[in-house]
Write a structure and sequence with these properties.
The structure is a homodimer of 222-residue chains. Chain A has eleven helices and no strands. With 222 residues, chain A is mostly helical. In chain A, helix 5 runs parallel beside helix 8.
């Protein structure tokens, strides 16, 4: 998901691609460049020119390959979660209590946001500002599976006696909101908490806290 | 904070103000128009033209009164939380356990986001994209007091035996993230949970859930 920058193919001169391998490579370089710029900035407010400059390619190629910036962002959103449903299903099917599955899921979510810190804001932008078709694709591929996952996991936890009955939407809002806030709100941390940069240690400590706090909130026994 | 639209002063023709009362009123109408448009859209991606059109005033007045869109947004952010520090201090000073204060605070936070759903994203935008001066103002007036509030409340709860010792930053991230997500993520709810619009009932049910879940997470006894 985050290839080493040194592994990227050598940059060609800005301009149109000349061979089919270069076309494939240019397409990937634009996706990777957008990912890099948005991750560094922890923001999706980047221009097509910034993306093209980072990729060392002509900005017109973004229209050529993706039909524009929105198309590129949609492809990035879907690409980053291509194995998403399978991972959730695998966890659902595993032989553990619902409580243990929730714990593993929350830790995984914090790590996923560390890899793709802008992902939630990208979803929101597509759900709100893009075509109905794009919104439906993101909704069906990324939101619905997570909602279903929480619904099934709570059912299981009520049945196996580890969880209390709660609204899956409330669980969705609190977990995704808490994960996203570590990055969408990262600029606020230096004012309130003297944290200039979210690093691995902060992410891991937060995952630990969040898993424990959420599971205490969901536990069958008060 | 959300005056009845029927209470607004009658619209004058678009153009420059002619009297000092009209100047004062035009300034307020621009602030109120920005608040309305961003609340309806649950997004801060609005243009100065949309704000001016809603206020039925000339777009040039945004520069005249606020020095531009960023100035208007900064004023709105500070205006909406002018009593913020006092409210937090009042709660800190009240004769209740830390657990009870946290519960009241969380319910108040969910209601505050219902009144000003875009506020957190506005903070982030100012903290990240505006001048160092604006960022410092928002940081000092809005982030630092909340961080201090959590720090003191946890200290009090550890002392009065109602709360366990946790990192105030983790509490800040989870509470603010969970509150913001109800609005920043509202467009996702129709896909996962068949919710088209966040209304008072949804906000109240969420406040109830969040207060209970967070307090169970923070309680001294597991």
């Amino acid at each position: 998901m985050d290839p080493d920058p040194k592994m990227r193919p050598p940059a060609s001169r800005a301009g149109r691609p000349r061979k089919s391998e270069q076309r494939a490579s240019a397409r990937e370089r634009l996706l990777e460049a957008a990912h890099q710029v948005m991750s560094e900035r922890s923001s999706i407010d980047v221009s097509v020119q910034e993306i093209a400059t980072r990729a060392e390619l002509n900005v017109a190629l973004i229209n050529y390959y993706f039909g524009g910036k929105d198309g590129l962002l949609l492809e990035l959103a879907v690409m980053h979660q291509s194995r998403y449903e399978a991972i959730l299903q695998h966890l659902l099917d595993s032989p553990q209590t619902a409580e243990m599955k929730f714990r593993a899921h929350i830790r995984g979510m914090v790590r996923a946001f560390r890899r793709v810190p802008y992902l939630q804001r990208l979803h929101h932008k597509i759900l709100r500002g893009s075509s109905e078709e794009s919104a439906t694709e993101v909704g069906a591929r990324l939101v619905r599976p997570l909602g279903e996952f929480y619904r099934k996991l709570i059912e299981q936890g009520v049945a196996d006696g580890t969880l209390r009955r709660v609204d899956p939407m409330h669980v969705y809002l609190t977990i995704v909101g808490a994960c996203d806030m570590l990055y969408s709100g990262s600029a606020s941390l230096r004012f309130g908490f003297d944290v200039d940069q979210v690093d691995d240690a902060i992410s891991e400590a937060y995952a630990e806290y969040l898993a424990k706090a959420v599971l205490r909130g969901l536990a069958a026994q008060a």
